[in-house]
Write a structure and sequence with these properties.
This protein is mainly beta. Helix content is 15%, strand content 37%. The protein has 1 helix and 7 strands.
Amino acid sequence: MRGDVFRIKPHRRQGHEQQGERYAVVVQSDNLPLSTVIVIPTSTSCTPTSFRPTVRICERETYAMVEQLAAVDWGRLGEPVERLTFAEMQDIDQALDLVIGRT
């Protein structure tokens, strides 16, 4: 599950949250079964930064918006559409370290 990419169903937008249907990467540990799942939304139009690694989803370059890490209900996830590579997940883990202050 960790590293899988899902199309995430939209919810009511608040503040600066991304809106509309988009892809999200599961970053939650496979060993932590919860009623929600921790994901990182993606965007093809956001500003590139050191904490938004580039990933390839459905043959298109996109940015993992690590600073918008979220817990969502499993019901908001559709079917998995892709799985990130080991290298892409390493980049996401490094960005997570930067965003949450582990480095």
